[in-house]
Amino acid sequence: MNRRILTLMVALVPIVVFGVLLAVVTVPFVSLGPGPTFDTLGEVDGNPVVAIEGTQTHPTTGHLNMTTVSQRDEISLGEALTLWLSDTEQLVPRDLVYPPGKSRDEVDKANNADFKQSEDSAEYAALGYLKYPAAVTVASVADPGPSVGKLKSGDAIDAVDGKPVANVDQFTGFLKATKPGQVVTIDFRRKNAPAGVAQITLGSNKDRDYGFMGVAVLDAPWAPFVVDFNLANVGGPSAGLMFSLAVVDKLTTGDLAGSNFIAGTGTISVDGKVGQIGGITHKMVAAHAAGATVFLVPAKNCYEANSDNPSGMRLVKVETLSQAVDALHAITSGGQPPAC
Known about the structure:
Layout: H1 3-24, E1 29-39, E2 43-44, E3 47-48, E4 50-53, E5 63-72, H2 77-85, E6 90-93, H3 94-97, H4 104-129, E7 134-141, E8 156-160, E9 163-164, H5 168-175, E10 183-189, E11 196-201, E12 203-205, E13 208-212, E14 215-221, E15 226-229, H6 240-251, E16 261-264, E17 267-268, E18 274-275, H7 280-290, E19 294-298, H8 302-307, E20 314-318, H9 321-332
Parallel strand pairs: 5-16, 16-19, 19-20
Antiparallel strand pairs: 1-5, 1-6, 2-3, 4-15, 7-8, 7-14, 8-9, 8-10, 10-11, 12-13, 17-18
Helix pairs in contact: 4-6
């Protein structure tokens, strides 16, 4: 064999081996970057992102976009190097995203549960801001369980055996006086339906010696109409603030966004407090790329957001839903909302 060809082949071997390693070997890192944004006043797949049925809604303008962070797992060494050199992607140890001892499916299910919780909290926070009265509200019904087919998530419980209940403590107090096998009468209100009465035979539970109804309840603002959030496959709780703002916007004549393209992020609690989130800079990049000029930032994320705002978006600090609504009113009227 020609010595020159042999030398070339020997030189190519490590290059080929390195190329295979780049393509085949995976690294224990996850890539985080800007994810898709969704206008909570708009539609996805032909359905309103926030749908309200059973009451009058009002026209809206502008944008109220929720933002997300994209994740890429099981990335190769070559992909990791490429992403590391990019300006928008961030590599973090995989254990920070998928803790040891938990499968990817388990983490994804937990994120989806957090997202569902954020939807419920967003509805309650918006209804509370709009001054709807509180009720003992069914958050979930255990299946199987004594209340399946009799009560539904979203029902308001008004009385137990003819005794009015004003809050969860009273409701629990009445239940503690019952025994397994006892039949109780529940007066309830259901959204977009007439009030009803349910006869429920209480079950047993190893954690208590009194009757088990199989419902989780909470004190929350209640309205007779239905609020649905038609956005799937988006995990985590950080959409809460923007969902709440969309509900408020549709139920009032204030036209919160005006002609502005507003984006933002933040968890929301039942009482309307806005909480800190992760990935704020990635979300800001996504918002700017989508066309946003204003970004609503949870107060505890302001330092991080200000440290990296190459887009020059207007950063508005929010601590509560009420403050966010006031800030949007200020923006549309030419005023000065709280800045980060």
